[in-house]
Amino acid sequence: MDPGIIIAVVQLSAKIVSLLSEYSSDVSHAREDISRLRDEVAALDLVLTKVQKLAEGPEAARLPTLNLLVETIKQTSPELDGLLNKLSPGRTRKTMKRIGFRALKWPLERKDLDRFVTVLERQKCTIITALNTDQISLIFDINNTVTGLKQDVEQDRYHQYLAKLSPAEGASFRSYHRQHEPQCLPNTRVELLDQIRAWSRGHDRRILWLNGMAGTGKSTIARTVAETLAVQKRLGASFFFSRGGGDLGHASKFVRTLAYRLANISLPLRRRICEVIEEKYDIAQQALQIQWKELILRPLSTLNQSC
Fold first, then answer.
1. What's the chain's Rg over C-alpha atoms?
2. Which residues form a coiled coil (predicted)?
3. Residue 34 CB coordination number (10 Å)
4. pLDDT in tens, 237-253
5. pLDDT digits over 268-283, tens only?
6. pTM (predicted TM-score)
7. By C-alpha distance, which of 108, 10, 104 is closest to 54?
8. What is the phi-psi region of residue 108: left when phi exceeds 0, alpha when psi lies from -120 to 50, beta otherwise?
9. What are the E-state strand segments in 63-183?
10. Which one-letter DSSP state was computed for residue 293?
């Protein structure tokens, strides 16, 4: 918005307020009408002055509604011009003042006064509404920024806590180290896979033990089931042991790795698991039974109660 447009209108309104003050002193019979009109023009002047400061300020670019006010302010200018012309006493007053008479006479009839007041009030309300819209937008922007910063800080804090779990690298079936490991070919192991999938949908049996001799395809079946559940968004976490595979060759990081994976698929679980880590800073060094109770069972139980 060009501040010059506003400045011209502000100057007009200031002249009218000054002129109305003179009328108030010199014309006693119309003081109520004069006061009413002066208050309305003064209120408009105050609002326009605020618009001028905003248009000239550093935040003008962030107030898109300012540009939409150009037409409203342009429409205000001829109204104020017309009012100023009606109120201006011209040469008559100067002549009569020289000979000692009070020359001012209130020039507005009630219908003219009502029209001017209505128009000016409408223009003022339009401008105020636009300014409020911009201010609300700014408040939302600030709130969103603050919320985003809080979330960033919260996420950083969560990452710091979860890093203390030190999960086993390569335990997940989708890890980089396992990307070339096979799954069941189509139309193979159909009956067994159906049984396992039926188990996964049930609630009566919590553990399924897939056993057999080495090399019979247990890991391949497990990867196939894990992939199916992951696609269905029903897989919480996975841990594939590997004989002689460092941390994957024993259970010391089993529970911690499951907790780490669960924390990364559910924000509510992440909060609860991090609360446990904050409360029990040495949980990673505790016995597996305690780790299971605190990092898995307790967060899942509290999550279930809150749902």
1. 39
2. none
3. 24
4. 999 999 888 999 999 99
5. 999 999 999 999 989 9
6. 0.56
7. 10
8. beta
9. none
10. I
